[in-house]
Specification:
172 residues; alpha/beta; five-stranded parallel sheet; 8 helices
Amino acid sequence: MNDNIFLIGFMGAGKSTVARCLHRCYGREMLEMDGVIEEREGMQISRIFETYGEEYFRRLETELLLELQERENLVISCGGGAPLRACNVEAMKKSGKVVFLTATPETVLERVRNSHDRPVIEQNKNAGFIAELMEQRREKYEAAADATVATDGRRPEEICGEIMEKILKFQN
């Protein structure tokens, strides 16, 4: 299977961890969208937001996803907002399968509590705010997804196994 695997979901859902696991266990090249954008722009995502605004950052995400249509056999950890734009979802679906990773607001808060590179929640690190934002995005995540996998309380290897099982079903 040479299709790309795009991991989407709220920040802290486990996209980066699961992408590393898919790389390690299945030999897929891993790409962290936020990391690529930071490297290209020469600054952290939070700084891009401060300097140029969210719309500028979202355009960079779209440009990168369009580039990735030329590649295959990648596992891509997408930024939490990437699937909110229809053109991004279209680009993902052209070259692969989209997997929505879920986690409870409490799990997300625990995972991002000590991180300061999440500009969308930096001033509101609490389960209530996270739950509200997750609910606002849920419909778009679900609409974009070819498969959904819960990450709460699970080992990365277990999650990766479930992802590959679900992805392989598309091949049969």
